[in-house]
């Protein structure tokens, strides 16, 4: 009897052990990938989901990784800066394999927690943290916004462009600088004005952004490039209410928001970056350091002008493509 019981216990142990092994499946390209054990935690930006911009793009890449790589995912949406530390710590203590922070707001939190948990792997997107267990992914947004400035000048009738940023920090100022240089590349005399939402919630204050857009329009600005997360919804509302005002979106494809009046969106491929870094981690290829993505790497770019081709015109679109090639080759240099 004892032998029978011991045999059954042993058999049960073998079966349980077999069930606990990593399973293999196939991704959409037919390659073998690990299945269940890899956990990814992501701390989105302060604008949160629904910003139709930075956080939404990151979430898109996260969902793609869940579907195609079969990783386990969890996302959180901080509402204050103090919550970044808390969320990163919670993910590290829960032994998540990869912990991702979105936007420069995550910089101090990742730097602090990555030092406290040196065995955990972290990723920060849109800022730099110089630690061996942190990969920093940044974008050459000046290249993308240079195209926005050139396009804005092509369409503007009053030769006056506007830029609305969330807050005046280096990463957003670099968007403005590229935008201004692109406009001046086309016409040295064009006026380019910048203003910032500011306040306690600069990435999610559409009412304030709408006021700023209307004020710009009343002062002869007829194209506005917005880099302000969820606050950009207010600029969209201003554009809907004025026949003489066009917009340029950012990060995600916002062209459908006002068809024909959002000239293009300057895509920062956060979704691709999130997916790729998860794939690297899953396959044991995570490394710290800095990755910089621009036009050449398809990290930046425009949409396909689905609704604005007629407004922009074939000649201008051809010129824009020429400018893009010259930026990639280095013929056009951005300061």
Helix and strand arrangement:
Elements: H1 2-20, E1 24-26, E2 32-34, E3 39-43, H2 54-69, E4 72-76, H3 82-93, E5 98-102, H4 107-116, E6 121-125, E7 134-139, H5 141-155, E8 160-165, H6 170-186, E9 191-196, H7 206-218, E10 223-227, H8 232-240, E11 246-251, E12 262-268, H9 270-282, E13 289-293, E14 300-301, H10 309-312, H11 314-329
Parallel strand pairs: 3-4, 3-5, 5-6, 6-7, 7-13, 8-9, 8-10, 10-11, 11-12
Antiparallel strand pairs: 1-2, 12-14
Helix pairs in contact: 2-9, 3-4, 5-6, 5-11, 7-8
Question: Short description, anyone?
Answer:
With 335 residues, this protein is α/β, with parallel strands linked by helices. Helix content is 43%, strand content 21%. The protein contains eleven helices and 14 strands.
Order of helices and strands: HEEEHEHEHEEHEHEHEHEEHEEHH
Structural class, please? alpha/beta
Q: Per DSSP, what share of the residues sits in E-state strands of 2 or more residues?
A: 15-25%
Number of strands: 14
CATH fold type of the largest domain: Rossmann fold
Helix content: 40-55%
What would CATH call the class of the largest domain? Answer: Alpha Beta
Question: Sheet bearing the most strands, described?
Answer: 6 strands, parallel
- State the end-to-end distance: 84 Å
Integer tally of domains: 2
Q: pLDDT below 50 for ≥5 consecutive residues: which ranges?
A: 1-35
Count of helices? 11
Which descriptor suits the 3D outline? globular
Rg on CA atoms, Å? 23 Å
CATH architecture annotation name of the largest domain: 3-Layer(aba) Sandwich
Average pLDDT number: 89
């Amino acid at each position: 009897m004892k032998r029978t019981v011991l045999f059954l216990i042993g058999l049960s142990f073998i079966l349980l052990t077999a069930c606990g092994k990593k399973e293999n499946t196939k991704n959409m390209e037919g390659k073998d990938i690990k299945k269940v054990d890899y956990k990814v935690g992501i701390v989105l930006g302060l604008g949160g989901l629904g910003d139709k911009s930075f956080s939404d793009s990151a979430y898109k890449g996260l969902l793609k990784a869940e579907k195609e790589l079969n990783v386990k995912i969890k996302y959180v949406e901080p509402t204050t800066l103090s919550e970044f530390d808390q969320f990163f710590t919670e993910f590290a203590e829960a032994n998540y394999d990869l912990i991702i922070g979105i936007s420069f707001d995550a910089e101090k939190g990742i730097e602090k927690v990555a030092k406290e948990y040196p065995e955990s792997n972290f990723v920060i997107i849109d800022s730099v943290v110089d630690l061996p267990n942190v990969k920093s992914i940044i974008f050459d947004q000046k290249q993308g916004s240079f195209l926005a400035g050139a396009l804005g000048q092509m369409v503007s009738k009053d030769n006056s462009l506007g830029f609305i940023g969330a807050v005046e920090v280096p990463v957003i100022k670099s968007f403005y600088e590229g935008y201004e240089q692109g406009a001046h590349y086309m016409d040295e005399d064009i006026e380019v004005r910048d203003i910032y939402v500011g306040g306690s919630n600069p990435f999610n204050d559409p009412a304030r952004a709408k006021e700023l857009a209307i004020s710009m329009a009343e002062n002869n600005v007829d194209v506005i490039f917005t880099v302000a997360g969820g606050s950009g919804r207010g600029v969209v509302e201003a554009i809907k209410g004025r026949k003489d005002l066009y917009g340029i979106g950012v990060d995600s494809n916002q062209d459908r928001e006002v068809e024909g009046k959002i000239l293009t969106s300057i895509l920062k491929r956060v979704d691709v970056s999130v997916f790729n870094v998860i794939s690297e981690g899953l396959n044991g290829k995570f490394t710290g350091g800095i990755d910089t993505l621009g036009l050449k790497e398809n990290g930046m770019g425009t949409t396909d002008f689905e609704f604005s081709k007629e407004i922009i015109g074939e000649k201008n679109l051809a010129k824009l493509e020429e400018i893009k090639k010259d930026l990639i080759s280095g013929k056009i240099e951005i300061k």
